[in-house]
Amino acid sequence: MVRGLVPLRGCDDVYFLVRDKIAWNMDGSVDAKPRFGGSWIRFWEMKIGKNARRCSFVKCKAWAEDGGHVWIAGGNGAYIAPICKRCNCCENETRVQGSGSQLKHGTEVVLVAYTQGMRSADRRIAPRESEGEDGYERECRSCGVDISNRPPNFTQCYTCWRGGRRGRGRRWKAVN
Fold it and tell me: Which end of the chain is more exposed for a tag (fewer CB within 10 A), N or C?
């Protein structure tokens, strides 16, 4: 259970934010499709039973035109929230992991499937203040590929992690 996120009675996939929560746009959601076709904003409206109004991100007053895939800090999956086009744009650096962006309290979100595309997508992470223009570079401990765009606690690229070793690295060998 995510703190500050309460399930709505009678709905196993609809939740209500009882306080502002750190959240960011999901990367790799292009392969996700609403169960009944159509757009994600229509899917959200159908599940919630209301029309979308304003963007769900704190300090954004624009009209919600998209149903955006968001990750809520402390969460366990992808949620659909009504957000504006600007906040849903992949080039908007104020809506990436580590940017401090938050969803407004009172927002209703719908839990949706966490797809393969979301699992394997490169992550856009806000640069830290201490990082220079060049940023920092981290390498996969198994193959040496740049993983600077992955979450800070990751030590391998997705390909190596998924490649049957489950994070054991190149030195792991199966015992027969």
Answer: C
